[in-house]
Amino acid sequence: MPAAPTAPEVTTATPPGRPPLPTEWETTEPGPTDDQSQSHQTHADDGTATRRDEAAGRSADEADGTADRPDSDPAQTGRTGRPPAPPHAHDAEDTKDAGTTQTTGDTETTRGAADLPCALPTHGGAQLAEGIPTEGNYSRSTGTVRALTLMIDFPGTPGEGTARQRFAEFFPQTSQWFARSSYGRLDYRPDTPIRRWLRMPHPFASYGIERGSPYEPGYRRLLDDLVAAADERVDFSRYDLVNVLVTPNAGPPAAQTVLSVTFAGNDSAPRADGVRLANVSFVYSRQDDGTGTLHETGYRVLPHENNHSFGLPDLYTAAGAQHAGHWDLMSEDWGANNDVIGWHKWKLGWLSARQVACATKSPRATARPGTSRHTLSPLARPGGTKVVFLPVSPRGGYAMEARTREGNDAAVCQPGVLIYWVDVHKESGQGPVTVMDARRAAPLPRPGAPTRPSAPTTRTTTGNTPANRLSRLAPYRSGLRPWSAPISEPQSCPQLPNVHADLSDATFTPGQTFHDNRHGVRVSIAVTGHTRNGDYTIKITRRGSSN
Description:
By secondary structure, the chain is of the alpha/beta class.
């Protein structure tokens, strides 16, 4: 059972720009003795202790908001077994349309953005889905998050380089990425109480780990062995999530196959020091594309995996990143830097209520004709309205945000207004977010394009019965699109290494209008201007039923 929600920590303080590396690293890297290797004590059957509030408590803004969904498949990736929540408080027909411009600024932090009337909750048993608020036994995503970080190697596969060097591949860059993306609302602190390679008792091959491996039995054995080897020197109850940085010479190169995986919201995980290790990320190899940028971009696999521990789904599918392109780290984490979409910042609690504008107050209000005007501040900057959301049905709606070349978005190809469809019924790896393309329909990813391989990399379990089978992912069919895309110029943006180019210039710029004549309502979203300070103005027009 997940712990009861607790009040969030203060989230307004900005974390330091460059967290220092741990001090007093050992100069030698000895492995454990044979006796130490055999010291195996698992806490998997200990059902008496409960996870302490600080380690598992969700923000008060992330209270229950789910509803039953009959077509849920508990065998798919994610977590089930949550109790159904009461109906959304704003599902009833609104008496007044909320079509006014949002004021800018970020001074209001007390009212939760998850309480906004246009927030769509996850339905039924959907796991690692896009619903707001986030439901499940995931880590906190605001305030101070303490990440236990362990570097491990194996008999016959000693650590490549030193443990400190492996740690430095990901820090302080990961902490800095989270600080920028969250506007200082997430103070991400990695801790390495064991500052040398932690030797596992068995060879890597004995765990049977490969792409798509389920939690049982290999990862369960590995985590049990890790707990046994580290328990005397680590107080697991101090941490919110766990990072396991595997020596890069264990397993195949990432360019051949990506093994990195996160087991998120895992109710079947073993316990250690009275807490359940429900959110654990394993990072293998190095995401080296051969362009000489590994030291700048190779760390990005870790924030991707940690975002699963915070409850975010994968946006890529079996076909690649054709749904969201390079606009979100959960779609592509190879190559040049990128941020996450504004919906994810809303979902993670990184935006206040003042920074999200509801074009209408509930999905049912979209059928009423009306016009609203909004000003979008670039997503990378603190303050201002970041997301405008137009709910179309209880299943989904359109989100709008301004993306520019700054912050974590330094590699943005074409600045402008990004418009995308969010489906709160779809789960991780099923394409829950679809970016609207401001030009002609894009082709499928080019053969050999450097996107994440085939299957989702997030695994969880269902109750006490492992259910870590891969999601059944329907093949992508380019003819099935939930929008009527306008005709515009062919792609003209330069192609960067390891960037899905087909959606790189998907943003809408002043003078362009997006139309949707489906979903039972005619919607037009026009980009009307670009101010001197970099904001974009948009107009949303709803013309009533299209039937």
